[in-house]
Amino acid sequence: VEFSPFHEHWVAVGTAQYFGIIGNGQTVVMELLPDGSLATMRSFDTQDGVYDVAWSETHPNQLVAACANGHLKLFDVTTSDNFPIQSFAEHTNEVSGVNWGLVDRTSFVSASWDHTIKLWHPQHPASMQTLRGHTGPVYNAVWSAVEASHVASCSGDGSVRLWDLKTPGRPVCDIAAHAHEVTALDWNKYNPTQVVSGSVDTSLKVWVRAYVARSRASMPCMDGYSRLSLYPNFGCVC
């Protein structure tokens, strides 16, 4: 689920049949009405489940969907048909996360169960970079909101890795973050050294790169995390 950065009442939702294990999917764009209800504006069908969605940071009517068949699809809500305006088909397993860059705003990254992270430009079907190093499924990859070339990723190998796209051969920081799979993470939007991670081991940890990636806080949860968002003003996590 993601709100549009251009239209304050637009919400994009990725859906899947049978918990995303098998079956079709759909990308749905909804409008939040004054009475608090949601009305469907557009929907785009896919042959596989949609695990994540991200709005374009440059085009107000476009969004990208991460699909269970390893594809990413770029949709435009103003088109008259159900087809994507661009498809990206390099991942060999499920694409579990997609995130649009907040600084240069021209590209997006995808995280996949094939252990890789890929950098894409919406006008080119071939990826611009592939980041390798994780030894398990990559569940999410998130751009820094401050540094244009910095991306953080989390994986089923228990690690959180920080990457600099200017030197993509290896991560600039490799954190053995949790004892079990790390399924969620986010940057602090106003502190480029701080990342928060969540795991199926039910723990939530805040990491500060300036302290050689030591955990500064750990907060338990009764269940694991699938997504999280760091609210910077008061240090809150959703």
From TrEMBL:
<keyword id="KW-0677">Repeat</keyword>
<dbReference type="InterPro" id="IPR015943">
    <property type="entry name" value="WD40/YVTN_repeat-like_dom_sf"/>
</dbReference>
<dbReference type="GO" id="GO:0005053">
    <property type="term" value="F:peroxisome matrix targeting signal-2 binding"/>
</dbReference>
<dbReference type="GO" id="GO:0005782">
    <property type="term" value="C:peroxisomal matrix"/>
</dbReference>
<dbReference type="InterPro" id="IPR036322">
    <property type="entry name" value="WD40_repeat_dom_sf"/>
</dbReference>
<comment type="similarity">
    <text>Belongs to the WD repeat peroxin-7 family.</text>
</comment>
<dbReference type="InterPro" id="IPR044536">
    <property type="entry name" value="PEX7"/>
</dbReference>
<dbReference type="Pfam" id="PF00400">
    <property type="entry name" value="WD40"/>
</dbReference>
<keyword id="KW-0576">Peroxisome</keyword>
<feature type="repeat" description="WD">
    <location>
        <begin position="131"/>
        <end position="167"/>
    </location>
</feature>
<protein>
    <recommendedName>
        <fullName>Peroxin-7</fullName>
    </recommendedName>
</protein>
<dbReference type="GO" id="GO:0016558">
    <property type="term" value="P:protein import into peroxisome matrix"/>
</dbReference>
<keyword id="KW-0653">Protein transport</keyword>
<dbReference type="InterPro" id="IPR001680">
    <property type="entry name" value="WD40_rpt"/>
</dbReference>
<keyword id="KW-0963">Cytoplasm</keyword>
<feature type="repeat" description="WD">
    <location>
        <begin position="88"/>
        <end position="130"/>
    </location>
</feature>
<keyword id="KW-0853">WD repeat</keyword>
<dbReference type="InterPro" id="IPR019775">
    <property type="entry name" value="WD40_repeat_CS"/>
</dbReference>
<dbReference type="GO" id="GO:0005829">
    <property type="term" value="C:cytosol"/>
</dbReference>
<keyword id="KW-0813">Transport</keyword>
<feature type="repeat" description="WD">
    <location>
        <begin position="175"/>
        <end position="207"/>
    </location>
</feature>
<dbReference type="InterPro" id="IPR020472">
    <property type="entry name" value="WD40_PAC1"/>
</dbReference>
